[in-house]
Amino acid sequence: SPPRYGVFEKTKMAIERKEGLDRFTHGYKDFGVMMEDGRVRCMEWIPNARAVYLKGEFNNWNLIPYHEVGFGKWELFIPANRDGSCPVEHCSELKIVIETKDNQTIERISPWAKYVVQCDHNQGFKWKFWNPPSSQKFQITHTRPRKPDRLRIYEAHIGIASESCEISTYRYFTSNILPRIRDQGYNSLLLMAVVEHSYYPSWGYQVTNYISASSRYGTPEEFKELVDTAHGMGIYVMLDVMHGEASKNVLDGLNMFDGTNTCYFADGPQGFNNQHDTRVFDYKKWETLRFLMSQLRYYVNEFRVDGFRFNGLSTMIFHEPSKYGWSFSQTRDYQHYFGRQMRTEGLAYLMLMNDMLHNFYPNLITIAEDVQGMPALSRPVREGGLGFDYILCKDATNLFNEMRDEEWDMHFIRQMLEENRHAEKKIMFTENHEQNEVGRMTLSRKLIGDSPMSESQQMTPQLDRGLSLYKMSRLFTHAFAGQGFLNFIGNEFGHPHWVELPSSSNNDNYQFARRQFHLADNQQMRYKYLNRFDRAVNKTEERFGWLKSNQAVVTRTHEGDKVMVFERAGLIFVFNFHPTKSYPDYKIPVRQCGRYDKSNILYKILLDTDDNCFGGHSRNQANVEFHSKNEHFENSPNSMMIYLPSRSGLVLAQSNLVDGY
């Protein structure tokens, strides 16, 4: 067995033998400050402590000592009030006071704190004891949706979801955005920046409080309501998590929790990611493993989250991520991924985490951030893989964002997409949140720019080109290579602006930290066309299921014509990327043979990027029929003549499947 698999097996067996994996990964039930039958029970792991105390508003900030129970763990029981009520009031402030072995006295927030609040924007947190009365607890009303067999993901950030210049809320998202996601045909929601972080502009990647759902947007009960409402709409809910690195904050984060540089983190230079100014976890430590895996189970059990996307994997996989994780292009030279540059303990942790989650929750999905071609990311642990269900793949992003369409090489596109490892499931996207960050050019901005989007203004050549390519690129990415498709909030209608979260560098400006959904709803604006097309693509995939079918088969690639044709899920996808040439009688291959008693099959247009309801010119008639013939062409048994307009994409289906659709 590879060393990583051996470390995984050894770690898993040790946990099972000493505590049991189920108990071990329910750390949030044993650690932190909890109410039990009226009394309060407290437990912390503080290996560098010689004394530990709890203080808070509940006792006028007087110190109550913990007692040591071994292995760096400290325990405290506070009896119930005489009337049986909890001695610590709901939402009252708490602090842990630690006397360290080197005679420091420090104050900290428990790593297991379930609710922390920020008094001032981007400042430190205060720990609030979360124990609402029954009347304030949200009551679950919906069952979880079934695990999707393919993913149409809506990636969103709660804070930017409203049109107002403010941080949006869980309740606003529940009432206003969830219905949009459902109506657009997305079956999955991926929420960013829910796990608590003190620095808002970090997009949630500098986590301070791993067990706390961010209070910026509301309370834990309101987040539960969001997830439950999504479930009622049939939407599968996933969260972003960071298990590779954490915020360097000391007073309200994990860093130096016990007064040392180690505790949950690696010692020495390996404990720091200087590029991100963050701390790096030590996966050899028992309590680090408990803490990280328990965080996942907390969100699954308490908030009923359905899955996770793991970011920052390069830090977990490579000893020097800046050298290996971000500079290698995808390659078949596998020596890059097997050698001393790999973090064996980090790899073993990912295997252990995925193995645990999939054993306890068979319907749960884990997604890996694309790590430059790392092999076996999404193969089962039993095969020696890391165990993720999907990889987030950036190939299409690089294609559509880095060169003009006139420069796109049809054969290169085909080769790039066909060379993907087909045995590993991928989620494709034309752009995600990274392309929407300030300083980057969104696809909408690149293609459409400042073109007039009002229907009262004349269509310009730049706008006509931009709308066409925006639709074509999204359809192509959606249909060709992946088993999932991801859209970032607002991009479904070509949101005109990037995202710039408020910070000191922009004087806390919220102008670009919001999504202007009225642009899609305004029938006098051309954004409606992109919004309609996005919905049509999702609804068409929902019916025909190309994301769950086999890899697309390319039947024709012609560089001179700028045409690519492929088949998937019984449909024919035809793309003409030529900026000016339309082809009145263009011959394309057809692999489908149809019934044996027919010499030809009738095809109709199922989806047309050039349809006027999507802002196109409707150069093909709506109900036009194309006849396939039993004439061999391009290694296919049949062929068909179609009208193929310039800069357009067609989805063709057998006419009996289109009628009534």
From TrEMBL:
Family: Belongs to the glycosyl hydrolase 13 family. GlgB subfamily.
Name of the protein: 1,4-alpha-glucan branching enzyme
GO CC annotation terms, alphabetical: cytoplasm
Coiled-coil regions listed: none
Domain Glycosyl hydrolase family 13 catalytic: 166-518
UniProt enzyme class: transferase
SUPFAM superfamilies (UniProt xref): (Trans)glycosidases (SSF51445), E set domains (SSF81296), Glycosyl hydrolase domain (SSF51011)
Protein source organism: Ciona savignyi (Pacific transparent sea squirt)
Gene Ontology MF term list: 1,4-alpha-glucan branching enzyme activity; cation binding; hydrolase activity, hydrolyzing O-glycosyl compounds
UniProt-listed Enzyme Commission number(s): 2.4.1.18
Catalytic activity: Transfers a segment of a (1->4)-alpha-D-glucan chain to a primary hydroxy group in a similar glucan chain
Keyword Glycosyltransferase attached: yes
InterPro entries for the chain: A-amylase/branching_C (IPR006048), Branching_enzy (IPR037439), GH (IPR017853), GH13_cat_dom (IPR006047), Glyco_hydro_13_N (IPR004193), Glyco_hydro_b (IPR013780), Ig-like_fold (IPR013783), Ig_E-set (IPR014756)
Matching Pfam families: Alpha-amylase, Alpha-amylase_C, CBM_48
A GO biological process held by the record: glycogen biosynthetic process
